[in-house]
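Section: Multi-chain targets

For targets with more than one molecule, the full set of components is provided together so that the structure can be written out for the assembly as a whole rather than chain by chain. Components appear in the order listed by the source. The example entry contains two components.
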Amino acid sequence: MSLLEVNNLSKSFGGLHAVREVSFCVEAGTIHGIIGPNGAGKTTLFNCIAGSIRPVSGGTIRLNGNAIQDRPPHEVAACGIARTFQTIKLFSRMTVLENVMVGCHTNSRGSFLSGMLSLPFARAAERKVREAAMEKLAVAGIADLAKADAQQLSFGQQRAVELARALALRPQLLLLDEPASGLTMHETDRIGELIVAIRDSGITVLIVEHDMSLIMTICDRLLALSSGQVIAGGTPREVQADPEVIRVYLGDE
Amino acid sequence: MRRLSFACFAAAIVVVQVATGLTGTGYLLTQLTMAAWYSLVVVGLCLLMGYAGQISLGHAAFFAIGGYTTAVLSSVNLLPAKSALPVRALSAVGLTIGGTDPWGSAVLRLSPWISLAAAMIASAVVAYGIGLPVLRLRGHYLAMATLGFGIIVYRIALGTPLFGAADGLSDVPSFPLFPGLCLDGTRLHRVSSYYFSWFVVLAVIVLIVNLIGSRAGRALRAIHGNEAAAQAMGIDTSRYKLHLFALSAVIAAMAGVFMTHYTGGIGPGETSVMKSIRYVAIVAVGGMANLWGALIAGTVLNFLSLRGLFGTYDDAVFGAVLIAMMLFAPDGIVRKKRI
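Its structure, encoded as tokens over all components, is:
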């Protein structure tokens, strides 16, 4: 059984078919890339998986065999799917460390009452959350920025915070929505290495990205979309050589 | 830093009391005690506005639920039913109070501790009832729903004989808190009531500051920082907003209970929508998500208002304050401190 199975997924907005009967599987322990021209439906597909676009118009999304389509985002996250956003969404007025600590929400405990009374078990849990968050910051290479205001960081650093925050959720599947957009070449190389390291640590990655050299370097499998439909799937080499993919990207002669 | 804020505040409370004692202006403590209870509402509302990003225009109604609940329950005479089992049980555990009414007849009353609990439960139930459908939606639907709720409570208070209609309820008995400590407006208990009131305000602030620093508080700040990202991190945003709304409503009801025992009565004026808007205006002055700012603004403005400084233009002043804040200082005038 694949980790993620998407079956005949469709999503239309009025008359616009953003995603049309898309089916694919993501195997555990791989980096799976999604490519396609602008408007191909990549982000819509992502948002359907993450639960931020509901309901889907048809089809199923299964994680470990359990249907997760049409569940709200916080439930999807609790199932073990973490995500980053195409436009960075950090928590304003919070430090980098606090941002990442929020990522530990689903794997920590503590209610309103235990928080108000500052009960010993809640304080002990907080220390653990802090340690776990520091660990993820170190993984993302930004441990020295822990106390900085998240909004004051450079673009590349903010992307790293988003990644550390998603990792803090200890996901089975990590959804990365254009993690290299707006980054310098050097930063792109670093994030590529980081994504490979994340896969090697046992987290499956599903990535939407426009940077073709990054995609071709790090992905184990690729899915090509155009106008909401799957036009090719397979290894990067296979997809790259697919005549339909070449036609969509480069146009007809 | 946090300890310093608390220490400064506690010191200020003592200094003010001593100063009024030395200068013979002890009568000021009455308005300062009332300002404490109003400030408690403001602090609870600040929590809601600053950390859930939601506005309630019904906090005066929650305050009134507290006040009217205790005014009715703690005034009921149980003497005719004194041999009934529930009354005997309550007496056995010390939750009834014997005494005389203003005309000298013997009465047996429910302890205000019971009405305090009842008021807090009632306000929580109402808050969950309003919030559950409304807080699933994004945007300022809570403001609209609580506005409607506030108007309903106002009309009920104004039109129901049980609640004294336009006159409100008076002769609410004193609240015997602990042996030797009573909350009421008599001169005898003026100083002790003043200290008790501010002690409760500080205690609630301690609880809130703890909350904000905890896992739940972090989730709330995350919701305010970026709602979509908070959801993606597994936070059930509508549930958190709902709990916070209920908490802030319960705080308002608690303030209403204590205020009603302190002043000995409550009238429909306390429930009006203008009162709710006043609370919102004060939070705006203090700065959203700034508890100390809200507390200082709440104390100063309520004290001035209670002293009658704004005369017949009281409500107009708070309306003007709200406009001025939105125009010139949307982040409040009290410097933001990290808490």
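Residues 120-139 of chain A form the longest helix (20 residues).
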